[in-house]
Amino acid sequence: MLIYSSWFGDLGGGELRMLDHIRHSRIPRSRMMVIVQSPGELQTVLTKENVASVLIPWKGGLGWVSRQVNWYRGMYRVRRLLARRPDAIVLCNTFHDLETVGRVARAVGVPVIWRARADTFTHTHRWPAKRLSRLVRFLNEEVTRILPTTGYEARLMVEAGVSADRIRVIHNGVDLTRFQDSASGQRLRLQFDIDESLPVISFVARMVPQKGYEVLFEALAGLRRSGCRFKALVAGDTTLLEGGGDAYRAQITTLVERLGLSDSVLLLGARKDVPAIMNASDVFVLASLKEPFGTTVIEAMAAGKPVVSSDLAGPRESAVEGDTAFFFPAGDAAALQDALGRILEAPEVARQMGRHGRHRAEQMFSMDAYISAMDEECVAVMRQRGLPVELQTC
Predict the structure, then answer these.
(1) pLDDT at 391
(2) Under 8 Å between Cβ of 36 and 55
(3) Cα dist from 112 to 87, 97, 99, 300, whole Å
(4) Which terminus of the chain has fewer CB atoms gathered within 10 Å of its CB, N or C?
(5) What is the 3-state secondary structure (H, E, C) of the chain?
(6) Domains of the chain
(7) What pLDDT, in 10s, does the model give residues 89-98?
(8) 298 burial type by CB count under 10 A (0-12 exposed, 13-18 middle, 19+ buried)
(9) Is residue 87 predicted with pLDDT exceeding 60?
(10) Residues 322-360: pLDDT tens digits?
(11) What is the structure's pLDDT at 390?
């Protein structure tokens, strides 16, 4: 039994990548379960996918006592669940999962795999030495396999003292076939009545401060002042912000109006047609202030689109400067404006970058490679524990 743990209950990038593995894995869904630690749309999707799930919230509460009660109640419920599953292995989807469900799993003798999809080790230099030492010892002694999404985090782990033989880098993958329908982009342009002569800039991200919405709109305002005409398709919502994110959503809407961008920017909210958005665009922007990987960069490349991205370690591992992307210093709206101007002023260069991006996505970030690697690691741990493994045929 493969038991995933998901700290978040909404559908962010990490949760969508977990769903990719669940949907395409050769491990039967009848042999899968997900512990969901926050209410949200994730459980609804899992039900539709015929995957068992259980909501065991750890966090939350109005006061210290309430939070402590929820914490220990969550710990107790996970312990009981795992005690009834002697055939289980646990796959922690985030560092939060490792620190909660992962520690309980090891306490009851259940093997743990950590999908290290966030940039945990880029922040450990700020930690007290004892805290880092405890984490490294736990990873070396208790975690069976560590699967970071990037090579840069794997290197940081090893430098901190984590045993290299426990680590395997597995990049996120995308379903390349979903991004081949260029007609979907044309249909979306028609739906929003976008003139064929207008270049389209796309931006797909959770509407949270770290994704750089303010940086994007300042850059777009600069483009408008320079005389550039465009349409920007901006997809994302505030589902993971405390209180539902109404205040931040209103703040972003007001910013668009104040900058005079209302006729150039379409705020689309949460969307499920990301391939169509990518295909409708001429350039994709990632403006994050921090970004451990940036799957949307790969999705843009899969659609054959050039990328303009914050110069961060995760996106740097996905794209190549001058070949598939232009990078700018994170948070620098003027530099983002300049990079966008370079793309929009040289359409043939942009098309060539898009072709190179598609080739890179095919070579390095296919869904098949991602699923095969994840399955291989899960099966290896199952066999190491002496559990029967029955895989579905392709």
Answers:
(1) 87
(2) yes
(3) 13, 10, 11, 33
(4) C
(5) CEEEEECCCCCCHHHHHHHHHHHHCCCCHHHEEEEECCCCHHHHHHHHCCCEEEECCCCCCCCHHHHHHHHHHHHHHHHHHHHCCCCCEEEECCHHHHHHHHHHHHHCCCCEEECCCCCHHHCHHHCCHHHHHHHHHHHHHHCCEECCCCHHHHHHHHHHCCCHHHECCCCCCECHHHHCCHHHHHHHHHHCCCCCCCCEEEEECCCCHHHCHHHHHHHHHHHHHCCCCCEEEEECCCCCCHHHHHHHHHHHHHHHHHCCCCCCEEEEECCCCHHHHHHHCCEEEECCCCCCCCHHHHHHHHCCCCEEEECCHHHHHHCCECCCEEEECCCCHHHHHHHHHHHHCCHHHHHHHHHHHHHHHHHHCEHHHHHHHHHHHHHHHHHHCCCCCCCCCC
(6) 2-173+367-384 (3.40.50.2000), 176-364 (3.40.50.2000)
(7) 999 999 999 9
(8) buried
(9) yes
(10) 999 999 999 999 999 999 999 999 999 999 999 999 999
(11) 83
Contacts of 331 (CB under 8 A, 6+ apart): 212, 215, 289, 310
- Encode pLDDT of 276-312 as tens digits: 999 999 999 999 998 888 889 999 999 999 999 999 9
Better pLDDT: 120 or 35: 35
Indicate if the pLDDT at residue 240 is higher than 60.
no
Q: What is the mean pLDDT of the chain?
A: 93
Q: Which residues of 262-295 are buried (b: 16+ CB within 10 A; e: fewer)?
A: eebbbbbeeeebbbbbbbbbbbbbbbbebbbbbb
CB 299 within 8 A of CB 179: yes
